Amino acid sequence: MAAIVELLRAEEDGTVSFGDYTQKEKKKLDSFSHAGSVYKVKTFREITKLERNDAFVYESVPGTAVSHFRSEADRVSFTAESDSDVQVTLGLKENTTYHIFVDDTEMGVMTTGISGKLSLSLALTEGPKQVRITE
User: What is the pTM (predicted TM-score) of this model?
Assistant: First the structure.
């Protein structure tokens, strides 16, 4: 996968793919309409950030390429790739407990605070990881 050439694209399954961690300089795409929402992505080697309808959705440090990102009322799923280990922060519901799965292995349970943000580390030097977070 390595990079999403378009920076942000709609997939046939209704998900979005975004990010290009290979870029040395920041690239961004504003006003991408998909499924009734407007997305904005900023990405390069140091960070990848996604917003939907001006609200925080996803951020990784350093940058990632994310495929098949799906965010529903009670779950988020995606595949992330990078050439380094990353910290991912997701904008979820506040004060909610979530189960975190990486490559179908449950990694634990986390509860968001009043900000609704949940952070996790991914060892992506070993290859792409599938992430699923459920209530």
Answer: 0.94
